[in-house]
Every structure is written in C-alpha cells, then in structure tokens.
Amino acid sequence: MKNQLNRVLFLPKWYPHEFDPFDGNFVQNHAEAIQSRLAVDVVFAHSEKKSKNEYRIEKANHKGVNEIRVFFKKANSPLFFLNPLINLYRYFKAQYYAYNEIYQDNKPDLVHIHVLARTSLFALYLKFFQSIPYVITEHWSGYLKESLAYQGFFKKLSHQIAVRFSSGMHTVSNNLAEAMQSHGLYQRYTTIYNVVDENIFKPIGRTKTNQINALFVGNLIQHHKRILDSIKIFKRLIDKGNNIHLDIYGEGEDEEACKNLIKELKIEDRIHLKGTLDRKGIAEVMAKADFLFLNSELENQPCVINEALCCGTPVVVPNIEGIVEVMENYCGIIFPRLDSISFESALEEMISDYENYDRDKIRDYAVNTFGEKAIAEQFYAWYNNSLNN
User: How high is the pLDDT of residue 2?
Assistant: First the structure.
C-alpha cells in the first residue's frame, strides 16, 4: 500500500533570515514551488552571538509556506573545545521547539533536509522515534574535486550516516551527484535543477541603445568568482573601443577591492557597483541586460544562470560541468574555465552577436526546465518514489 503524501517538513541548513536575507534563497524558492502540490513547513535554526534569551522564535507565512525560524544563543564557554558540542545541542533543541510548535496534533509525512550534516540529527531522531522518513537535497559544492572541502573524519562519518538512512538523495546537478558518489555516499540519486519563478523572471520591453549592457550578479569575491579578473578583462575590452558598460550586483569580502580597482583603472563611468536588490529588482535588470556572464573557478548549478535564461537573456559561462549540463547552444557561449584569454574572446563574440539570440526560444527552454510548475511536479514525483520504493 502506498504512503499518502500531504505534508512535508523542510529542515534547511541555509535559509533567508534577518542577518542574511539571501542565505539559501534557492531553498526558499524550492519551498514556494512545492507548496503548489502539498503543504510545506520550514524549520530553520540559527545561532546569534548577542542574545538576551537562550531561544527566540519567529513565525511567518511566505507565499503559502509556513516558516518558523528559531535563533539560539551561541555558546561562548571558556572551555572552547566544548562550544561546538553545546551549539550542536542547542541547534537540535531549537529544531525540536519549532517542530512541537507546528505539529501539536499531527506530524509531517516526509522530512526534507537541505544541505548536510547538522540538519540530519533531528531528521534521524524523527525517523527512529516517530517513524517519519526523510530525503536529502544537497547544494554544497564542497564535494567537487576542484574544491577539496569535504575533509575530516567526523564530517565524513556524519554525512555517510545521514545518506545511509535517507529514503532518497536529490542534487541540483548530475555533476554533484557523481561527486558525492565518488566519496562513497551511495543512495538513489535524482537530479532536479534550481527553480525559478517564471512570473518574476521574464522578458520585458527593452530600450535599444548604442551601448552594450553586460551584467554580473553574485558574490563579490575573487576566489571563486574571479570578480577582480573580470573587471580587468572588461578594461581591456573598453580599451579596444567596445562601447560596453558593466553593472555589478552583489556584495562580498572583495567589494572594496573592486571599488579600488575600478578607480585605479579609471573606468568608473563604464563599470558600476550597484549593491543588492530584491528578486523583482534583479529580474528587471536581467531582462534589460544584453547578456549576463560568470567567470567562476568553481560552481555547482548557479541560480543566476537559470534566472537570466528565464528572462530570455543569453549568458557567457565557464565550462563547469554543473553549468554545461543546463546549457543549450542557443542560450549563450561556453568558454574553458580559468582561461582568461578564452573568456575575453567569448565576451567579444557575445558583443558582436548578442542581438541575434532568440530570446523567446531561450525563455521557452528555461521555463520548461526551471519553471515552478515543472520543478514542483518533479519534486512531487521524487517524494512519492522515495516513499514507496
């Protein structure tokens, strides 16, 4: 007999909150899409250094998703080696408080972990003490061979236990699934790409101008986004006589270095640091841009590419496997990662050819691949398969 699936509980490691409204926004996007098929609750726990109370609860309903955020006081014991254990206990307790706040008279049919591994502790408790199965979504790029971040005995042990007792594994790229399996994390894997709200990220009327408008959206960090290298390459394009303007949206540890470099190169009138915007604001600038680019050393499956394509905007991107698998040849240009000369050539090719891209065709492909309705159906099928196989 098949299990009935009506309600799912998200346990994300990353999720938007008051200290970082963009943290894990792709997880929130998944929740929004899935709530069109079944009820979604989110329990998110996070530490805070300065807190009068040991635990603080916030409740919200975001586009039909029931969210509870619990903030717990970060441990500051003089016995510093105890602090990680204290924080792990408080993290578990915060999830426990929130769970009991939601499920007083019932319980979820399925738990959905987003990003290992501390999130799995409470999921394991629910599995063994309340017989609630769980599935896992992994977004972390640390498993990739280019990263070398998946290290340490206890980290590997906790990941192996979580994956072993899960009912299914989901990754946002085939490349990430292969990387996880290369570390011995075996399970039934399903790939579902990052979701985009096609009603927000959509084409709009573009004003034709004499200048070419390039766009970067992301963290302003040299490693691994290579933002400083990108600014230098745009300087070379400008010196070659290209009437190109670059808008950069984001923030990060190298933001000040970006400002100084733009000033040093005397291109303040051509490259502009725009700060951050909400989703609607980013959607509008993506739809107006002539093209978007990434020059990353390392990526998993970046949301900004999916979003730009839903706007009908072509992209220039490195040949990272998680990116290549979602690219069709009519969506933009792919260049070899870590190759500055090839990146510059790809930008010059796009500058010459951006007007010839079929934005409607790009849009149609992206909506069918990343749109909320398509992704919701894929998740619903995956949940049912995970529960009943």
Answer: 52
Residues 98-125, buried b or exposed e (16+ Cβ, 10 A)?
A: bbeebbeeeebbbbbbbbbbbbbbbbbe
Contact 357, 290 (CB under 8 A): no
Beta bridge pairs of residue 7: 39
How many helices (DSSP H) and strands (DSSP E) are in the chain? 14, 14
Place of tokens 């790229």: 173
Residue 334, phi then psi, degrees to nearest 5: -110, 135
**Rounded (10°) CA dihedral 302, 308, 311, 316:** -140
DSSP letter at 355 equals G
CATH number of the 7-195+371-388 domain: 3.40.50.2000
Among 119, 89, 39, smallest CA distance to 383 is for: 39
Residues 6+ apart with CB under 8 A from 252: 219, 220, 221, 225, 227
- At CB < 8 A and 24+ separation, what contacts does 156-161 make? 156/183, 158/116, 158/117, 158/118, 158/120, 159/116, 159/117, 159/183, 159/185, 160/184, 160/185, 161/120, 161/124
Distances (CA, A) of 139 to 111, 122, 188, 335: 17, 19, 16, 24
β-sheet bridge partners, residue 169: 136, 189
Query: What is 212-369's CATH number, 3.40.50.300, 3.40.50.1980, 3.40.50.2000, 3.40.50.720?
Result: 3.40.50.2000
- What is the Cα 133 distance to its own chain's centre? 25
The H or E element spanning position 43 is: strand 39-48
Please, where in the chain does CATH 3.40.50.2000 lie? 7-195+371-388, 212-369
CB-based contact 335:318 (threshold 8 Å): yes
Exposure string over 281-290, b if 16+ CB within 10 A, otherwise e: ebbbbbbbbb
Q: Cis link prior to 224 (omega < 30° from 0)?
A: yes
Q: How far apart are CA 33 and CA 36, in angstroms?
A: 6
Average pLDDT over residues 281-297: 96
pLDDT digits (tens, 9 = 90+) for 80-131: 789 989 999 999 999 999 999 999 889 999 999 999 989 999 999 999 999 9
